[in-house]
């Protein structure tokens, strides 16, 4: 069972489709993170650089996730479609400070300071240190998303 399956189970399943936007710098580990969220039998061993953007669809027993993966600088029609109105909605934002296994990695607290995340006042946000190769930190992020989505339902 992948982390998305667990998330779907926890959500109460009122919604049938969930859109997730995965945005980050080139080579930051976006595809690796999304791959790790899939059930192990659906994961690929062969991660290649994403050209432009990619759309992944996950179907769990009763929920489908559409994940749009694109570079922070991408400005495509598709990303526009999915991101329309995001700015004005109180949608949760989960940050992964990925590649924390690298020797020169800085802490998630420092990343948060450098990105001035404390200035985000109109949306719930959370930052997790992660090592997407080992899958470390991803569960913490999914747990936080679960709490946020539960709160949005009530
Ligand atoms: N050391 C380390 N390497 C990682 C980690 N996550 C991803 N990588 C590696 O970083 C490289 C880029 O990972 P991708 O998942 O392709 O990154 P991306 O953000 O999707 O890259 P683009 O599609 O090119 O924007 C790959 O060689 C991954 O194996 C991590 O947590 N630690
Ligand atoms: Mg990619």
TrEMBL record:
Molecular function in Gene Ontology: GTP binding; GTPase activity; metal ion binding
Coiled coil: none
SUPFAM superfamilies xref list: P-loop containing nucleoside triphosphate hydrolases (SSF52540)
Chain sites annotated for binding Mg(2+): 31, 50
Pfam families hit by this protein: Arf
Signal peptide (from-to): none
Domain of life: Eukaryota
Record key words, sorted: GTP-binding, Magnesium, Metal-binding, Nucleotide-binding
Binding residues annotated for GTP, in chain numbering: 24-31, 98-101
PANTHER family to which the protein is assigned, alphabetical: ADP RIBOSYLATION FACTOR-RELATED
Protein name: Uncharacterized protein
Native source organism of the sequence: Gallus gallus
Lineage: Eukaryota, Metazoa, Chordata, Craniata, Vertebrata
């Amino acid at each position: 069972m992948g982390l998305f399956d667990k998330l779907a189970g926890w959500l109460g399943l009122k919604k049938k489709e969930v859109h997730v936007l995965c945005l980050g710098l080139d080579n930051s580990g976006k595809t690796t993170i999304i791959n790790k969220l899939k059930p192990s039998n659906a994961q690929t061993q062969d991660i290649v650089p994403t050209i432009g953007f990619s759309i992944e669809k996950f179907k769990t027993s009763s929920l489908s996730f559409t994940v749009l993966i694109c570079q922070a600088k991408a400005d495509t029609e598709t990303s526009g479609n999915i991101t329309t109105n995001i700015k004005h909605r109180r949608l949760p934002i989960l940050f992964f400070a990925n590649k924390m296994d690298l020797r020169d990695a800085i802490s998630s607290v420092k990343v948060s300071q450098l990105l001035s995340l404390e200035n985000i006042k109109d949306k719930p946000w959370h930052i997790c240190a992660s090592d997407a190769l080992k899958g470390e930190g991803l569960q913490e992020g999914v747990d936080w998303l679960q709490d946020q989505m539960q709160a949005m339902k009530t």
